[in-house]
Write a structure and sequence with these properties.
By secondary structure, the protein is an alpha+beta fold. It folds into 2 domains: about 10-125, Class II aldolase/adducin N-terminal domain (L-fuculose-1-phosphate Aldolase), CATH 3.40.225; about 125-250 and about 260-275, 3-Layer(aba) Sandwich (L-fuculose-1-phosphate Aldolase). Helix content is about 40%, strand content about 15%. It has a 9-stranded mixed sheet, with helices on both faces. α5 (about 125-140) runs parallel beside α9 (about 200-210) and α6 packs across α10 (about 230-250). The radius of gyration is 20 Å and the shape is elongated. The structure holds Dihydroxyacetone (2HA) and zinc ion. Zinc ion (ZN) binds next to loops.
Length: about 280
């Protein structure tokens, strides 16, 4: 009698964490935030959850990361592919997404376990993602998701406002009462820089030590959180608020939210608003 135990795995493409990536990318595409190959998402996965769906000892190939992500060695990520369209993730997750573990002596390689089926690889913004994961994990043990997008009104508002985190945050908070409640820690901003590099990754991660939201001037925004809903909800609230701001910009604004109401909301929700905005 053959006593060999064969472990069976679930269908990766329909695992809850893959389904969530499929749904989120489809939503973002339909919102008009992620044209062509715009936007990228990375989410940390638990080994126990992942090993229900695949053999974590079976590495398909290793891909150099381009820097040392030492702090993340042994951690698992699901990440959108470079050059891939959010529009197409849902219908072909195995080509447009990849699941890998950070490996190598110094965390310099991605050990691919599933996906990038056409021979592709992770997003060109992987340095910004991984460096941001490291930065967020250093201040929040529950952190899991980094999401990057090109939401239209957010980029438009950023184009007509000074590159000043306090000023930009104030304009957002004073336009929509939800804003201070959802992001009391405000929005960090980087000037326009060359994207897809370690340099912008390092600058983003530096901001991420303080902010969950980081604006890339003339490009887009990063949102982070303990799950996809949280990271998406942050970007969604900034975008809705920026839309209100842009629809009213240039008019004689009769009603802007008074500081007293913002302070009242902070008190009601027990928030610690970004210093310097309401003082
Ligand atoms: O992946 O959004 O920042 C395409 C981009 C680059
Ligand atoms: Zn981008």
């Amino acid at each position: 009698m053959n006593t060999e135990i064969v472990k069976t795995f679930g269908d990766v493409a329909n695992a809850p964490f893959v389904k969530e990536m499929r749904e989120t990318t489809a939503n973002m595409y339909r919102l008009g935030w992620d044209e062509r190959n715009g936007g990228n998402i990375s989410m940390m996965l638990n080994e126990s959850e992942l090993s229900k769906y695949l053999d974590v000892n079976k590495v398909i190939r290793t891909i150099p990361i381009g820097f040392n992500a030492k702090e993340l060695i042994g951690k698992y990520f699901i990440v959108t592919g470079t050059g891939k369209y959010f529009k197409n993730v849902d219908k072909d997750p195995e080509t447009n997404l990849g699941i890998f573990r950070i490996g190598g002596e110094n965390g310099e390689t991605a050990e691919l376990l599933w996906g990038y089926a056409d021979g592709g690889k992770f997003t060109s913004e992987l340095p910004a993602h991984l460096m941001s994961h490291i930065a967020r994990l250093s201040v929040d043990a529950e952190h899991r998701v980094v999401l990057h997008s090109h939401p239209t009104y957010t980029i438009a508002m950023n184009a007509i406002c000074p590159i000043d985190e306090i000023d930009f945050t104030r304009r957002l908070w004073k336009s929509n009462t939800e804003a201070i409640v959802v992001f009391p820690d405000g929005v960090g901003i980087l000037p326009c820089m060359v994207c897809g590099t370690n340099l912008i990754g390092e600058a983003t991660a530096e901001k991420m030590k303080k902010f969950r939201l980081v604006m890339w001037t003339n490009h887009g925004i990063y949102g982070t959180g303990k799950n996809l809903d949280e990271a998406f909800g942050l970007v969604e609230t900034v975008e809705k608020t920026a839309q209100l701001y842009m629809l009213t910009a240039g008019f004689d604004n009769v009603n802007v939210i008074p500081d007293e109401v913002l302070k009242g909301l902070a008190e009601l929700w027990n928030l610690s608003p970004l210093e310097g905005v309401l003082d």
